[in-house]
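Please fill in the sequence for the structure shown.

STRUCTURE ENCODING:
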């Protein structure tokens, strides 16, 4: 039986056109050297210019833009059909719902509960389990920090 068969029908995929973000020295200093990757994919509107798209089809500039598919509150396994549509799985982000700020990529490396040593090549958590454990630990260890209250987002990207 396919994993997709087990997913409820209410799983919503939202598509965003986004600039590509390659960390520079000032970002590496801001994040206290905890994220070492050539490019970051995130649902953080502070890191990238993002705009919602109706579908995954859009004329973008491949050198500087990408399409990011975001699944809010995903199930345990990545949604495989996006791979068939030309998307690459990037990982899981922890994003404060009200501000769209990522606890992983945009809080200065401040959270000891985020396993920075496990991040993917895109600066995201590799498994749903890692994301869920970090999400719980954030609230437990930093209950007074607003950015600690996050939702899990599954992120995919498509270069055009």
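FILLED IN BY: designer on duty
SEQUENCE:
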């Amino acid at each position: 039986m396919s994993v997709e068969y087990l997913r409820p029908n209410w799983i919503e995929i939202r598509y965003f056109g986004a600039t590509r973000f390659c960390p520079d020295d000032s970002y590496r200093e801001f994040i206290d050297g905890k994220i070492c990757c050539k490019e970051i994919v995130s649902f953080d509107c502070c890191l990238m210019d993002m705009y919602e798209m109706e579908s995954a089809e859009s004329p973008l500039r491949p050198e500087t833009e990408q399409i990011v598919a975001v699944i809010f509150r995903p199930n345990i396994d990545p949604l495989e059909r996006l791979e068939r549509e030309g998307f690459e799985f990037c990982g899981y982000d922890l994003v404060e719902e009200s501000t769209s700020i990522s606890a992983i990529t945009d809080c200065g490396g401040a959270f000891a509960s985020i396993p920075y040593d496990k991040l993917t090549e895109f600066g995201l958590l590799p498994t749903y389990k890692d994301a869920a454990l970090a999400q719980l630990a954030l609230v437990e260890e930093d209950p007074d920090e607003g950015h600690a209250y996050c939702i899990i987002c599954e992120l995919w990207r498509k270069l055009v």
